[in-house]
Amino acid sequence: MAGLRGYANLPSYSAIKYAIIGFTKADGLRHATDLIRVNAICPGSTETPLLGEVSDDIGTSTASMTKDVAVGRLGLPEEVAESLVWIVSHRASLVTATTLAANGGMVGA
């Protein structure tokens, strides 16, 4: 999500994530005629053991992260995985050079 909204306390991390999105767009366009799809998935706050560490780094709590999510809860790893399964499937054959935000409608993204 840092590539979609940025974080004041993590400028280097946000810059790298923006770079990945730019690379995804450029490489997706470059390889589109070769029928190679290049996409990125930007998961929102997801319930994993790492979440507590990340919330400490950006100076927020998981409760305040949930307030920013339109669906009112954090994502689950399997929900992010389903996004990945879809984007690599034939059902998404027209999707390339794009970023899929699997974030539950996270505000500011």
TrEMBL record:
Keywords: Oxidoreductase. InterPro entries: NAD(P)-bd_dom_sf, SDR_fam. It comes from the Eukaryota. One of its GO terms (molecular function) is oxidoreductase activity. The keyword Hydrolase does not apply. Belongs to the short-chain dehydrogenases/reductases (SDR) family. This is NAD(P)-binding protein. It comes from Glonium stellatum.
